[in-house]
Amino acid sequence: MGIFSRRQTAIAEPPAAGGHDWPAERSAPAVATLDPALRALTGHWTIDRPHSRIGFSVRHAMVTTVRGAFTDYDSRLYFDGARPSESRAEIVIRVAGVDTGVEQRDAHLVGKDFFDVRRYPEMTFRSTSTTHEGAESFRMTGDLTIRDTTRPVELQLDYLGSVVDPFGYERAGFDGTTTIDRRDWGLVYNQRLEAGGSMVSEKVRLQFDISAIRTT
């Protein structure tokens, strides 16, 4: 890891069929510090878009916060509850689906000042490592690519629980957060304020509210 379809329904999207080229889950010795419930979640997952959100928030004019979400993306997840280091994630976001609730602002974001979606239609996150930090907390490092610039980021991930829903899908919930400096990816547009400071903060908080469905 669109996530959060504008045409939402109360029924989860069916899990994608197999065919990915990732290796099947492997047996591994139990790790004493991991809850057995986590080990039972080992397998391939996908993000259920109608019940998840890949969002962002940024300070505007130094006095308020603007929030938005990316609404069109594909995801592939593999969680290894016995060996968290084997866990990985890939999310491909089609940036034209950005939604802040204001049409004019969204048009500005997809234009040349920011994402320049005609030249760079996708942004991606691909994990490179995962570590278990204790209890139900994990840290996932990965490469974030925006406008053909790739830089490493670290996500703080918290496991929220798992359940079999009324439709028979096995679900697992995770919250993930990180803060980036958008200038590192070439998003440098800004306007200065008379009293000092900038119209749009360089710091952007990314938020991943994930309801994942097991596919295998």
TrEMBL record:
Record-linked SUPFAM superfamilies: YceI-like
Domain of life: Bacteria
SMART domains referenced in this protein's UniProt entry, alphabetically: YceI (SM00867)
Transmembrane stretches, start-end: none
Region called Disordered, residue ranges: 1-24
Occurrences of domain Lipid/polyisoprenoid-binding YceI-like (ranges): 44-213
InterPro entries reported in the protein's UniProt record: Lipid/polyisoprenoid-bd_YceI, TTHA0802/YceI-like_sf
Family named by the database record: Belongs to the UPF0312 family.
Protein name: YceI family protein
Naturally occurring in which organism (per UniProt): Streptomyces ardesiacus
Lineage: Bacteria, Bacillati, Actinomycetota, Actinomycetes, Kitasatosporales
